[in-house]
Amino acid sequence: MSNRARKGKSKTNRPGVNGAQAASSSSSNGGPAASSSRETMAEAIHQRAEKRKAHAAEIAAQLEAQKNTGNDLFKAGDFFEAIEVYQDAIDTFGEKPVLFSNLAAAYLKVEDYEQAEDAATSALMYDPRMIKARYRRGLARRGMHNLGAAIADFRSVLEQDPSRTEAREQLRTTEDLYAVLGGHHDDGYESSDNDWPHCDDTPAEESEVDSDSSDCLHIGNGFPCRFYNHEGCLRKDYCRFSHAPDEKSIRDMLGKNVCIAFLLGICKFGTAKCVYSHNKDCLPPGWWDSETTVAELKAILAPVDSGRLDKDMIDDIIACGADVIDFEDDAHTGYSQAMDERIGTGLPIAEFSGEHFVLLMVLDGDPVEDYKKPTLTALSNKIPIKKAVSSEEALTHLDSPHLAGVFVADAALTERKHSQVLSKLVQFTKAGGSVVIGGSFSSWVTPPAMAPFFANNWGIKWKSGSYHRAMFSLNASHDVAKSNPDLPSSYSMKALHIIGVAPGTVVYREQGANPTESPAVRVRCGKGHLGYIGDVNWEEGSIAVLIAMLHLPRSSPATTSSSAKAKSDAKVTSSAPAVEVNEAGPSRLPTSTQKQGSAPSQSSSAQPFILLLALDGDIVEGYKLPTIAAIKAKSSVKTACSAKEALTHLVAPGLAGVFVVDAGITNRQHSEVVTKLVAYAKAGGSVLIGGAFSTFVRPKDMDTFFEKSWGVSWKPGSYHRTTFVLNPGHELAKANPSLPTSYSMKALHVKNVTPDSMIYHPTAGSRLESLVFAPKPVPTLAESPAVQARIGEGYLNYIGDVNWEIESTKLVLAMLRLLHPPAPSPPQAASSTSSPVPTSSKKPNQASPTAASGSMSTSNSVPADAAKSKQATASSTPSKRFVMLLSLENEDFFATTHAHCLSALRDKLETKQALTAASALSMLNSAGLAGVFVTDAGIVQSENAHVLSRLVEYVKSGGSVVVGGFFSTFVNGLQMNAFFKNSWGLTWKGGSYHRTTFSLNASHELVAKNPAVLAASYSMKALHLGGISPTDAVYLPSDNARLQSRVFNAVPITDHSESPVVQRRIGDGHFGYIGDVNAEKDTTNVLLAMLGLLGPPQDVPIGVSEQVPAPRVDVPEQNTITKLPTGPTSRPFMMVLSFGNEKFFAGVQGDLLDLLRSKLEVLHGLSNERVIELIGSPDLIGILVTEAAVADDANAYLLGKLVAFAKAGGTVVMGGAFGANIRFDKMGPFFQDSWGVPWRGGDYTSVEIIVNGAHQLVKKNPTLPSPFYMKGLHVSGITPETAVYLAVRDPQPSTPAKKVTQAPVALAPVEKGYLGYIGDVGLQEEHSKIVLAMFGLL
Fold it and tell me: Is-above-0.70 flag for pTM?
């Protein structure tokens, strides 16, 4: 027998031989049975095709059955179950437009309009002519009040099918609503996007479930099975190797994987050893059929190791040419040689010089939201950041020889107007640069723009993929992982994935999911790298990934050694106070006596803490921050985002309560955590299920979670908004008397609850509160959005609020036993923490430092007789005057959008908000009522007629009422006209809606009384009133007024018979209207004037006058400490405000905190309310602000108090991370509008600086460090008298011919006090000394 015969025999007798494949192999080698083998091969291909066809039919039948199941549930009214079934069908059988359309219909039924819009849009992507999906999207958009977009959908439906009467009716009513309200609710919608996808667009390709058998798709250990790809594998699904398609081979018509290197003729293993097939007879048509193409590819790829070849590389070369491929080794830590030559350093990336920087490209604007600040702070701690908010800035920075990397943080780069920037960015990458696409890019990019953005510019076939939250694992084989061993091995992320990625380019992946889809990818592009991070929430884990993708050093340059860091950490830990002072005094937890909601007994040495259990990681969105901040103000907080962290914290001795903030706890993989959680509650702990739990939990998971794990029969109930009232008989209500008696909430209720377990419940008068649907009675009174059940010795709590309402914050605190903690034990004689006023930590013989000297009395105490007299006077006076905020619809975001107005009101008087008719009537009967601000359109509803009647009586008897806020935004036109005519007897009617510039009507009574305070003219977008008398108008369109619009032409405003601001005397009082829809700052004074509040603060009780605090003094002197008396009456202290970033500040400036605490008492981490309380203390010597959050609208009231403190003689210093995080464009308004100093943002640079000898602070503190290098943000607009330090290159004040324009450190007088600024972002030792000097402590 010949050797050839022996080989053939050996193959046919081998286990797993496939006859067709063996015959085809023989035929390809020119064997004698070539003809018969081809026939056998054709038969095998035919048989496989028939099997796939049959399998596909079976899958289609299963899909139809599951769709019908969902339809049956929908018809039965079980919409949540229908949603689950439709979503499961999409996950199982792929993206089908009919499934997405049905899913949208179900979401509409439960009023989840955002999800309904997403589902309908997905349906239209795969079938742009699907009328039902477009109609349902229109309904969803109308439900969200995106009226312009809804109109576009209804019109598109009628263009395709004019017979659709339901669409015609919806179009008519929506256009009527739009005529009244305008398009100001269409935020986030460009008109060009409204009808995307257009009905004539090309449908996206539907994903199909592979009709192969499970054997052909078997993945195994991921390594290709040689038997399967050659002779055939008899082990099938039990094989430990992979039978599935992969990137290094081409799938043939028999299901075998053919080697790409073999097709190019460069496989180094040969037929016998290669794990892939070397037979191309069964391949479908492709590039391998063209000898010319194969030869060209072979020539291009000759330098490449055949083990690195993959399909994407081949496709990229065919589509874009060889310039997109780099054949150097990816495992490197620096730039390529070309990039090193360009920047002229030759340094690896981890050794950046001070001149290098990362470019933050934000062409849509500046990313400054709270949840983004940690990312930007982490970047700035590694390397200086320069921002480009325009094409001109971007092009300038991209040409810099010191550019170290680019972070594209929004989606503006996909717009055509930025094409030149994009072209330059691609060049930078191919020359060796690192670019990362992330930040808000994934939140705002449109799917049609994403694919061409990557394909046409970068030569990469990435497309928009799925959007969901999951746990992702690090791909340990990726170069980013190898070069950055400290990257998290896994973390939870909500992200927009990209599809069409090569597995080798994936940095993080979801286990068991599509291997070609990922939320974090990095590829070679020329000699550089392009990265993508789809995280929409800027999670903490993504910060490390971003830094790694940009090749930034893994440790801060300021870190000298690991041992030094360890020592520093230990120092910070030991110096941190165990308990912070807050509104209710120091947080104390019982150690033996258990009370309602208390935790199990704790060790007396353990610091109590609240555990935030976020196994989906869903705790970072801005609207959740107030609740989290309120908890942190009351207690230490620890967060667990993984099962391992949760299990550790659940057995910690200091655990005082658990707040489960998302639905990750219901996943089966966390069953051990649930077991521990239940055990904790049964032992006496308090567990709260709330936050985002009700938003993301699946109904069937919720059933199982409560019934099987906790033994309670709670089940998901209805989902709607209404007003709920407190159950006064509930134990929690009795223990927490400050809980709101009622408030409006949009919530997922629970049913099967007992009445005594309900904390809040609807009443017979509760109505559905919706902007779209009629206010029908709630479906049942047997459900509740807030319940509590006894579990063993502890408690299980549930809050279904999906919007984290402000009132729910108090409920959260109560359930965690933080709202009204048990009274502390009687203080010991030596205790200092029991005093409500901070005490000094100084030695007995140390003098008490303060900011006051000279003019201040030597004693800060109030004489006993005077105190008694004042107390007696106050006790005999009526209640304090207040302004009522009448908010019967309690619109979302009112407090945020009108923060400036509310802050100004609170500076004048106390404000009380009436959310129900009962509370409104009670306040209207109060003797202390000073005026009413109607903030929304709830007053026009028929159920509030009795409140409106009493409001009219209040005005006629001499009161002042102003209708404004969200009233003009949400009021219906017909209701508005009837409101003015029937209730007030006025001819006022709703008028036009536009923006223009308005001028004061000098003849109006209000203007005459406030001549120098009201703005003479300003621009406002408003709903005007017609039918007014000329004497009613406070503002009228200016003589040269023109329509101000980004869409319409600037036509002149000729009709001056309408006004956006009117006021008329009715009876003995005044009734006013403000139509401003954007809460312009100039409108604030108009409101104050209408309420008679312009002038000094009026929050003193009727008949009581308070003493003005003693003014504080000049620049703090170095020897101030020795001037004050010691003793029990003087307790000097200062406050440090870090706005939730206390741990960060304590970590990087622990030495400064230690220095301050060695001088006096330091309060750090207090809530805004507590800070405001303590600002009035005569012992407060100053306030250090370490974060830019002080400039946020949410903190406007606090900022006003800081300014007042400084003007009265105090010292406020902006330092710490303020300069690193403040928005450049926000610096001018912050300093100029709030503080009255002409400072603006200056250079961000690292320079040598010296003291300005002409400044008083330098004269009184000659030991201030000088010279030294400081990296920081300078302020411009300063004078020689306010600059404490100057750059060495700047002119000195002694040179009269030159002018000082900016400085990194400044101190300016603000009336009787001082405002300081330290722009240092490196937070070095000199920073601490400057802080001490500014507070007179050096």
Answer: no
